[in-house]
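go over this record:
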Amino acid sequence: MGVLASIRSSLRAVFAPGPVSPAGTGAWMPIVREPYTGAWQNNNELRLETALANPTVFRCVSLIASDIGKLPLRLVAVDANGIWHETTSPAFSPVLRTPNRYQTPAQFFEVWMISKLLWGNTYVLKDRDQRGVVTALYVLDPCRVKPLVAPDGSVYYELQTNDLAGVAGPLVVPAREIIHDRWNCAFHPLVGLSPLYACGGAASQGLAMQSASTSFFSSGGRPSGMLIAPTEIDPETAKRLSETWHNLGAGKTAIVGNGMKYESVGVSAEESQWIEQAGWTAKTIAGCFGVPISMVDSSQQPPYANNEASTLQYHSQCLQTHLTAIEAALDLGLELPAPYGTEFDLDDLIWMDTATKTKAAHDAISAGAMSPNEARLKYFGLGPVPGGDTPYLQQQMYSLMALAMRDAAAPAPPTTPAAPVVETPVPDAEETP
């Protein structure tokens, strides 16, 4: 502990995203401190487990995490032509196939993305063998990790106890032992920011609307109101009429007498524009996460009724930045030497129907972009056939260079037509004297 204390004394803690759980509990204690302007002064904190109860927040987080989790991660190597091909390596392939002893690759990347989406930070601890090769990866609780910066600018991380990762904290490790994937680093380059920072108010509003709607329909679907007497009544009569009214319950007919008249003091769902408000909160939350609203609400489809186009939009404006960040973080964290790298296979994300796959394969083969065997493998998962390894083009097609050379060549001299050949008739043998 003396060495640890001396290291701590020379390091400066970077703003941590949340409180640290009690030692040994291993529990996450997530809090969005400012779901809307002024919420902190009113002591109105929004906990992440409460925010996740919002259907749109839950859908966005689970959709992004599961879609990235289902994509196979490949070890690739670049060839002499600059083309990446899938390969294997006894040093790097095992940890990509089995990140740790209790998670599959899909579960590992789902937890990776959930931490990043909810906290803006993902901390992955590396476990090495005697060779120094990374053999296991553990996603840590972001509440129990604190970035530290030394006076010379070097970065360390303080880890609290984590039984699954085998950490008996507190422990300070150098940055080379942690893969830190972060985004939206608005306030510090080592601290990411969750989209909930921007859409926490919308999530809180949506939950309040759900709670109010539940209470509204539990009371019979009628707004609250009051009984108005035409004349003044004594307190005992008012108490008796109030108790009679409340004891009836929803759907009952009240006969209270004394000329009482019921007047509503609330607003109906139509008057409060409940549907419009719910739609606004869903669009706001989905926009902050970068998810197209059609992925959250199937009733709001884009004008182009094309699943592939919608998926490409979803990939370009939402998933691509996360996929690229994970690939770069793993390349650096696993210390992959040239020519190795990591790459997600997007074919499992963008599925085509049979007609679209057939047309795409036909066009690729006809254009000479793919050989028949390549198209069979990519679009149909079929094996090679004899003679299908060569791309084909039609014979009458010429290269631009050949056409330019033909046009630049000198015109051929005009040819003189040959004189017609006159054939001499051969006399018949019988006519010979």
Summary: Confidence is low (pLDDT under 50) at residues 1-7, 15-31.
